[in-house]
């Protein structure tokens, strides 16, 4: 498959779906600082994939994919804290963490192909 735009990248689509889930799970949290940070970190995943692709070099795309992986880790770290702060249930954390791990693995695979 030829990738003509970042919208054609499967991991970008998965990351976008993940952002929507994060926004839905944390939309009613009154801790605005926490909510904004976890939402920004999730958006960073998809945006770094897009920005790296638009740079039009494999070297830069690779760098941005590593940044996106880092944002996956940041989200998972915050999910752990969200459970401790009773913002989400352990089950919700597990569901969101699994999605984040799936995206991180897809990013690793993409990096290896570059």
Automatic annotation (TrEMBL):
It comes from the Bacteria. Gene3D superfamilies: 23S rRNA-intervening sequence. It holds the Pfam family 23S_rRNA_IVP. PANTHER family: FOUR HELIX BUNDLE PROTEIN (PTHR38471). This is Four helix bundle protein.
């Amino acid at each position: 498959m030829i990738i003509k735009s970042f919208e054609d990248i499967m991991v970008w689509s998965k990351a976008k779906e993940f952002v929507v889930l994060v926004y839905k799970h944390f939309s009613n949290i009154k801790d605005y600082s926490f909510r904004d940070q976890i939402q920004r970190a999730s958006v960073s995943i998809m945006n770094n994939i897009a920005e790296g692709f638009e740079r039009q070099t494999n070297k830069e795309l690779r760098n941005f994919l590593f940044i996106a992986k880092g944002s996956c880790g940041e989200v998972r770290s915050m999910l752990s804290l969200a459970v401790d702060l009773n913002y989400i249930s352990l089950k919700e954390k597990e569901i969101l963490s699994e999605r984040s791990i799936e995206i991180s693995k897809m990013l690793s695979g993409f990096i290896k192909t570059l």
